[in-house]
Specification:
The complex is a heterodimer of chains A (about 350) and B (about 300).
Chain A (H helix, E strand, L loop, with lengths): L4 H14 L1 E5 L1 H20 L6 H26 L7 H17 L5 H24 L6 H19 L1 H4 L5 E2 L5 E2 L2 E2 L3 H24 L1 H11 L1 H6 L4 H27 L1 E2 L6 H14 L6 H15 L7 H15 L7 H10 E5 L1
Antiparallel strand pairs in A: 1-6, 2-5, 3-4
Helix pairs in contact in A: 3-8, 3-11, 3-12, 3-13, 4-5, 4-6, 4-11, 5-6, 5-11, 8-9, 9-11, 12-13
Chain B lengths: L1 H33 L6 H19 L3 H29 L3 H23 L14 E4 L2 E4 H23 L1 H11 L1 H6 L4 H23 L10 H15 L4 H21 L3 E2 L6 E2 L7 H13 L14
Antiparallel strand pairs in B: 1-2, 3-4
Classes of the chains: A mainly alpha (about 350), B mainly alpha (about 300).
Chain lengths: ~350, ~300
């Protein structure tokens, strides 16, 4: 067959397209590792030069990143919009706080129960929405759910103390060693963030995570290979909700105060915006987005009340010109500066 | 006595529902013709009411001229500019970036309103001085009747325009199938622009009717947006009729729930339970039930699956 002159010509043409192969310069990997290590080291050493206010900001960044990582599973990888991430944080925060303060549970047990409850609720409300494959039904159901949670938190005063909220929420201790001081609570938050990042990274690398991505990129084809879109999307959403629950527990510990208004719809919308500005569907997107939203009010302090206006306009511009978010720049930089076209 | 209360509540509910229908129809129209899920819809309504107030004060004119003037401004802002600057460039990336951008826009409008006009709720003039009419045993608010009359006029005019006029039929065709509409020689882009203009007209009209009942406040957009959303989904968002009926349904449920949930008689005792703080939960639960059992909405058509 290969004797056929036309065929060999064709083969050459096919190969001709492959003659130029892009080669990634090894310095890219060194640079990324160095950068990553530097950031981790800086985070570990941060208490040396940051006062407690700076540490509180970093703790805020940590729990927000965890919530956005959860949202990233739902939106970035499973391709569904969830508008109740803050409501799930509320579920986590109130569950753990009430278990600790009213029922006298151990902090870690309460954390575990809060996480499992968020997971369970994620399954329960995700199921009706995700049975329908087309459209944004998850967005609609979560919108309703978020408002329902707020109503319950506000009205069941005997349990949640209503709009006044709950004060003096305790911080955890480990083997009798209290993590109350800002520096210690900071390391606790950092450890939780590291753990959550590892879990997300592991999920996305596992066959599971590959199924998520396959379904996002080509649902029809993946389903023809036997992957159930409903099952995987539901799993992604439930795990994402559980991470939000954990983030809520951390927020309650950090602020030592919770009220229903901390978990309103616009907080969920803010988390969605953190994700898309950082870069949805990217592992580092949540870190960038959460950092931006946490630090921007500090940097934009001179703008005073215009801060949210500027942020909103920023979101629109990012969507308009870089729909992949800030993390979407990395592949571009990689192509632009670290790859050479070489002869194969 | 019981029936009489029920009818009074029903009429008040129809008045609320007529306003909700105005909010929801534009929302559903945008969704059908261009695939835009507009999360800034509530903020459009909220901003329109401040616009009317501002024009009244600035030009020292009455409510109606200010309303007509703000119709023009809002068609320019929420019709033309919204479509050209935000929707058109983003539509090609799919619907999620557009959803996010409208969420961002809603935040910008809300915060700008707070900065310009302050965080306090402002009183808003009503079309007519309210008085209670006695129609036999039934007592009805005149303001409710006027609201129903104005809203129904707009709704009927819109239905006639959509179903009878050439442009309206072309818009309907665009909503049903853009490709075929284009083949038939319909200027699809222009038809989509018309739906944006109609939406701007409807949000300003809804603002005119709803704000006297509440007050003009920068944060009320979220609730309006949620109502538009729920009405469109409960009724069936691929039909204008669905959004209309969804709006009426939510308005009526709102009024009935507020009244009857406050007086729930417990069995085997004389005490009553007040569940009225949970009245807003009823439409939310209805929303979830609808999505569970009839996701295309009560009056919606099932859409064929496309692969």
């Amino acid at each position: 067959m290969s004797q056929d002159p036309n065929n060999t010509k064709l083969q050459h043409e096919i190969q001709g397209q492959r003659l130029l192969k892009s080669k990634l310069s090894p310095s890219y990997h060194y640079l990324m590792w160095a950068l990553g290590l530097a950031i981790v080291l800086a985070l570990i050493l941060a208490p040396l030069w940051l006062k407690s206010y700076g540490l509180i900001l970093l703790c805020t960044w940590a729990f927000r990143t965890i919530a956005v990582q959860g949202l990233n599973l739902t939106m970035g990888y499973a391709g569904q919009v969830s508008l109740a991430q803050a409501a799930f944080m509320g579920v986590g925060a109130y569950t753990s706080t009430l278990l600790i303060m009213k029922a006298g549970y151990n902090y870690w047990l309460a954390l575990l129960i809060a996480m499992l409850l968020s997971l369970l609720i994620g399954f329960l409300i995700g199921f009706p929405a995700l049975r329908i494959k087309e459209g944004h039904y998850l967005a609609f159901v979560t919108l309703g759910f978020g408002n329902l949670i707020w109503l319950v938190l506000r009205n069941e005063q005997w349990l949640t103390n209503g709009p006044l909220g709950i004060r003096d929420i305790p911080r955890p201790s480990i083997f009798g060693y209290s993590l109350f001081e800002p520096v210690k609570f900071y390391y606790f938050s950092l450890a939780m963030l590291a753990l959550s990042s590892l879990i997300v990274w592991f999920i996305l690398r596992s066959p599971w995570g590959r199924a998520f991505k396959a379904l996002r990129d080509n649902a029809a084809r993946s389903e023809s290979l036997g992957l159930s879109k409903t099952t995987y999307t539901l799993l992604a959403f439930a795990i994402g909700s559980a991470l939000a629950g954990v983030a809520g527990v951390m927020q309650a510990g950090l602020v030592e105060y919770i009220d229903p208004d901390s978990f309103l719809l616009w907080r969920s919308l803010l988390l969605v915006m953190m994700l898309v500005v950082g870069g949805s569907g990217s592992l580092i997107g949540p870190f960038i987005g959460a950092a931006l939203v946490t630090l921007l009010p500090e940097w934009l302090r001179f703008t005073g009340e215009y801060y949210l206006v500027i942020f909103g306009i920023g979101v629109i511009i990012v969507m308009r010109y870089f729909p992949k978010g800030i993390a979407g720049f990395l592949p571009y930089l990689k192509r632009r500066f670290f790859t050479k076209e070489v002869q194969a | 006595m019981q029936l009489q209360f029920f009818i009074q509540l029903l009429i008040a509910g129809i008045a609320t529902g007529a306003i909700y229908a105005l909010m929801a129809v534009g929302f559903a129209l945008l969704w059908q013709t261009s695939g835009t899920i507009n999360f800034a819809q509530g903020e459009f309504i909220m901003f329109s009411s401040f616009l009317i107030l501002w024009l009244m004060k600035l030009l020292n004119i009455g409510l109606i001229p200010a309303y007509l003037l703000s119709l023009i401004i809002s068609m320019l802002l929420f019709g033309l500019l919204f479509k050209r600057l935000l929707v058109d460039p983003l539509l090609k990336y799919g619907d999620v970036p557009l959803i996010i951008a409208t969420i961002g826009l809603g935040m910008v409008i809300r915060e700008m309103t707070r900065i310009i006009w302050g965080a306090n709720a402002l009183p808003f003039p009503s079309l007519i001085k309210n008085q209670v009419l006695n129609l036999g045993p039934i007592r009805v608010g005149l303001a409710d009747l006027v609201t129903i009359a104005v809203a129904m006029t707009i709704i009927i005019a819109l239905q006639l325009f959509l179903n009878k006029s050439f442009i309206g039929r072309s818009m309907e065709a665009t909503a049903q199938n853009q490709q075929v509409a284009r083949i038939l020689g319909i200027n699809v882009d222009r038809m989509i622009l018309y739906t944006f203009l109609i939406n701007a007209f409807l949000v300003t009209s809804a603002a005119l009717l709803v704000t006297p009942r509440l007050l003009a406040k920068f944060s009320s957009g979220e609730a309006f947006g949620l109502i538009a959303f729920m009405a469109a989904i409960i009724g069936g968002f691929n039909q204008v009729r669905g959004a209309l009926i969804g709006g009426f349904l939510i308005g009526i449920i709102d009024n009935l729930a507020k009244f009857y949930l406050a007086r729930i008689h417990l069995p085997f005792s004389d005490s009553t339970l007040n569940l009225s703080p949970y009245a807003p939960a009823i439409p939310l639960i209805l929303l979830i039930v609808i999505i569970l059992f009839k996701p295309e909405g009560i009056f919606g058509r099932k859409e064929e699956r496309s692969i």
